[in-house]
């Protein structure tokens, strides 16, 4: 697996009103931090089985690239950069193709030059490689202009490096069956929003105290948590004045414990990655769909609520990492595509109510695209 330093970046978030500009920036910043945190945590557990996958399906074994030596490898990498630099514009399909080719060529070149004794003896090879990588990224950022949210959805779904892996298909098939059955589970209908939140809080506290150390406990947690989450979504407008910070914190702690137990082999890494990845997809898409419907129906009581609902509709395009994207079912890919296609309507609704400036909302998809490219 390739080791590269992370490239820093800054995203200037677009708020839906001047009054809530700082709040929107803070939400975007939290989303970025959460995404990086989740990605870093996920990478630890990818190593348990994805390294094996990569070793079995390495670029060297199936790549169309052939190099005479390190100089030739770096030259071909620079030639690729020059080919992108010559492009004046690119639609989603072409940009997706560039990204996929970049991922393959970059991995192939890096793994080739890393075997050269000069790689560790001198910095010139690595400096040349990383310099070209930065140049390619800059060109991709240039081409990512005037994007729609549909462009973002298309590119994220077609450029995940795990999109063609089949080693986890059996576990994924089991997870698909499991999550499909959750829709038949009833909601918690007793009590008001505060009482339902108290029940949710007690469930999380009990789970955190007991821990999750086997598949049975993991599936039991996911089933009950899903009921609580869908209960919350069914009357999300009633929770405006209900504090949920502790619910969020306990959920994060439980998820961290699940991955830690996987690293200590109390849970299989495959179960942890696949079931938790599909959980993320399901929650983000369910949440986004509910908020999309509320915005379309005009059921918004304040600018702060409009701001919150807007960002929740955008979360699937912001918070799903590459592995989670690869866990999307065909139905979820369709749902994500439809959600992206609805963004212009959502923007019009918010603008018509005075909650947002249309020109500002139009900038958000391009920002999300640039954020994605900056993290590649």
Low-confidence stretches: 1-61
Beta-strand percent range:
under 5%
Query: Span between N and C termini?
Result: 15 Å
Helix/strand-derived class?
A: mainly alpha
Topology:
Blueprint: H1 21-46, H2 50-56, H3 59-62, H4 70-85, H5 92-113, H6 117-121, H7 124-143, H8 149-158, H9 169-182, H10 193-210, H11 215-234, H12 245-263, H13 269-296, H14 303-319, H15 322-326, H16 330-341, H17 343-352, H18 358-361, H19 364-374
Helix pairs in contact: 1-12, 1-14, 4-5, 4-7, 5-7, 5-8, 8-16, 8-19, 9-13, 10-11, 10-12, 11-13, 12-13, 13-14, 13-16
Structure description:
This protein has helices at 21-46, 50-56, 59-62, 70-85, 92-113, 117-121, 124-143, 149-158, 169-182, 193-210, 215-234, 245-263, 269-296, 303-319, 322-326, 330-341, 343-352, 358-361, 364-374. It contains 19 helices and no strands. Helix 13 packs parallel to helix 16 (330-341). It has 376 residues and is mainly α.
Quick overview:
This protein is an all-alpha fold.
Name a few traits of the molecule:
376 residues; mainly alpha; 71% helix; disordered N terminus
């Amino acid at each position: 697996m390739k080791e590269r330093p992370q490239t820093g970046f800054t995203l200037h978030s677009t708020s839906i009103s001047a009054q809530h500009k700082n709040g929107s920036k803070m939400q975007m910043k939290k989303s970025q931090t959460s995404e990086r945190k989740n990605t870093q945590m996920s990478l630890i557990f990818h190593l348990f089985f994805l390294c094996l996958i990569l070793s079995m399906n390495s670029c060297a074994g199936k790549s169309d690239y052939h190099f005479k030596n390190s100089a030739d490898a770096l030259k071909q990498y620079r030639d690729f950069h020059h080919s992108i630099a010559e492009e004046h514009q690119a639609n989603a399909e072409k940009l997706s193709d560039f990204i996929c080719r970049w991922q393959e060529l970059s991995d192939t070149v890096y793994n080739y030059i890393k075997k050269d004794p000069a790689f560790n003896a001198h910095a010139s090879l690595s400096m040349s490689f990383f310099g070209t990588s930065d140049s390619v990224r800059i060109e991709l950022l240039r081409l990512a202009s005037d994007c729609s949210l549909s462009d973002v959805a298309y590119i994220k779904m077609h450029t995940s490096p795990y999109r063609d892996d089949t080693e986890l298909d059996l576990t994924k098939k089991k997870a698909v069956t499991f999550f499909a059955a959750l829709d038949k589970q009833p909601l918690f209908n007793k009590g008001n929003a505060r009482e339902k939140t108290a029940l949710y809080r007690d469930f999380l506290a009990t789970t955190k105290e007991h821990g999750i150390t086997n598949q049975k406990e993991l599936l039991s947690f996911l089933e009950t948590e899903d009921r609580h989450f869908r209960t919350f979504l069914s009357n999300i407008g009633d929770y405006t004045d209900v504090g949920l910070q502790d619910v969020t914190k306990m959920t994060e702690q439980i998820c961290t414990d699940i991955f830690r137990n996987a690293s200590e082999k109390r849970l299989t890494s495959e179960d942890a990655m696949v079931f938790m990845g599909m959980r993320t997809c399901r929650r983000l898409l369910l949440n986004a769909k509910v908020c999309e419907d509320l915005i379309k129906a005009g059921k918004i009581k304040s600018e702060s609520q409009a701001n919150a609902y807007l960002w929740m509709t955008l979360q699937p395009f912001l918070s799903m990492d590459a592995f989670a994207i690869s866990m999307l079912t065909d139905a979820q890919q369709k749902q994500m595509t439809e959600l992206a296609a609805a963004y212009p309507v959502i923007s019009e609704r918010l603008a018509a109510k005075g909650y947002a400036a249309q020109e500002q909302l139009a900038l958000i998809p391009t920002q999300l695209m640039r954020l994605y490219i900056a993290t590649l």
